[in-house]
Amino acid sequence: MRKLFAFCALAGITVALAPQVLNAAESQCPLGTATLKGTYVVSGTGMVVGVGSVTAVGLHTWDGQGKTVAAYTLSVNGNIYRGVTVTGSYSVNPDCTGSLTESDGSHYDFVVLPDGNKATWIRTDAGTVVSGTEVRLKPPQDNE
Question: Quick one: average pLDDT of 91-111?
Fold first, then answer.
């Protein structure tokens, strides 16, 4: 009888705690959009169908409130474009996945580390095969 009681008690505790464990696993980025804040070194490479190979490197600043600006140098089939600047809007989910839409109409999905120091992204527009990473260069200041 004691074994049955102990088993039932353990089963009850397990069932009661399961939602909390699942929520904790899903809340790796409890700051949400504020997880990405500061200035990051961004680089990416790939190709655009009908255009050719593309590579970019530059700085990407996230405001922690859903707005962003990127300034970079772009190579398209060996043609260099300096001073490219695009703005965008983004969001970060509790599981550290997120999405970005830039003012030029491009779309990205990304995963950010819980501390916000690094993100890996992929462009999700048809006809593109472009991906890259971002690493925080400058942490956000309290007054930013």
Answer: 97
